[in-house]
Amino acid sequence: MLLPHLEAGRREAGCDEAGRGCLAGPVFAAAVVLPPGFAHPLLNDSKKLSEKQRYAARAVVEQEALAWAVAEVSPAEIDEVNILNASFLAMHRAIDRLSLAPQALLIDGNRFKPYPEVPHHCIIKGDGKFLSIAAASILAKTYRDDYMMQLHEAYPYYCWSQNKGYPTRAHRLAIQEHGASPHHRRSFRLLPGTAQGSLF
């Protein structure tokens, strides 16, 4: 049973990211403020939902949330600041875009770069504990999946429609055969046995 809040009576925004472990594409993040006492049977950690359930849950979140926002950080920015800082930056951008200012942030994970003037709480496996973080995980995941499906049209041989940029065997074989695309993260180890970023 997911919890509706960490502290009752406080406007909390749940934050989560998607795509940290990918070889290609941006990292996406979402921030969601849910109404007090909100509950819905579809809302759960995005990793525990089927694709169909995730998109159905996304529609619920977009319709019922008091405020929600999604943001991304590009592969070039990831290469510049590293993936951990890029994840924080994506969350900050999502929080920036909220139409309603949160009084506290619930962050999925164990680390975060403080957002100005808003206290935060890092919660390990938070997407399986708090509704607002679960909602953010669903938005981040589905918006990133949509983005990778669009990229797949231009680069079908990387199988991004299936792997969404994660390091599957088919993805790595395609990099070996076709080289890296402009959407690959240059600072990542794209092929096993090579030095990090050595493909370029």
Automatic annotation (TrEMBL):
<keyword id="KW-0378">Hydrolase</keyword>
<keyword id="KW-0963">Cytoplasm</keyword>
<dbReference type="GO" id="GO:0005737">
    <property type="term" value="C:cytoplasm"/>
</dbReference>
<dbReference type="InterPro" id="IPR012337">
    <property type="entry name" value="RNaseH-like_sf"/>
</dbReference>
<dbReference type="InterPro" id="IPR001352">
    <property type="entry name" value="RNase_HII/HIII"/>
</dbReference>
<protein>
    <recommendedName>
        <fullName>Ribonuclease HII</fullName>
        <ecNumber>3.1.26.4</ecNumber>
    </recommendedName>
</protein>
<keyword id="KW-0255">Endonuclease</keyword>
<dbReference type="GO" id="GO:0006298">
    <property type="term" value="P:mismatch repair"/>
</dbReference>
<dbReference type="GO" id="GO:0032299">
    <property type="term" value="C:ribonuclease H2 complex"/>
</dbReference>
<feature type="domain" description="RNase H type-2">
    <location>
        <begin position="10"/>
        <end position="200"/>
    </location>
</feature>
<dbReference type="Pfam" id="PF01351">
    <property type="entry name" value="RNase_HII"/>
</dbReference>
<comment type="similarity">
    <text>Belongs to the RNase HII family.</text>
</comment>
<keyword id="KW-0479">Metal-binding</keyword>
<dbReference type="InterPro" id="IPR024567">
    <property type="entry name" value="RNase_HII/HIII_dom"/>
</dbReference>
<feature type="binding site">
    <location>
        <position position="17"/>
    </location>
    <ligand>
        <name>a divalent metal cation</name>
    </ligand>
</feature>
<dbReference type="InterPro" id="IPR022898">
    <property type="entry name" value="RNase_HII"/>
</dbReference>
<comment type="function">
    <text>Endonuclease that specifically degrades the RNA of RNA-DNA hybrids.</text>
</comment>
<dbReference type="InterPro" id="IPR036397">
    <property type="entry name" value="RNaseH_sf"/>
</dbReference>
<keyword id="KW-0464">Manganese</keyword>
<feature type="binding site">
    <location>
        <position position="16"/>
    </location>
    <ligand>
        <name>a divalent metal cation</name>
    </ligand>
</feature>
<keyword id="KW-0540">Nuclease</keyword>
<dbReference type="GO" id="GO:0004523">
    <property type="term" value="F:RNA-DNA hybrid ribonuclease activity"/>
</dbReference>
<dbReference type="GO" id="GO:0043137">
    <property type="term" value="P:DNA replication, removal of RNA primer"/>
</dbReference>
<dbReference type="GO" id="GO:0003723">
    <property type="term" value="F:RNA binding"/>
</dbReference>
<dbReference type="GO" id="GO:0030145">
    <property type="term" value="F:manganese ion binding"/>
</dbReference>
<feature type="binding site">
    <location>
        <position position="108"/>
    </location>
    <ligand>
        <name>a divalent metal cation</name>
    </ligand>
</feature>
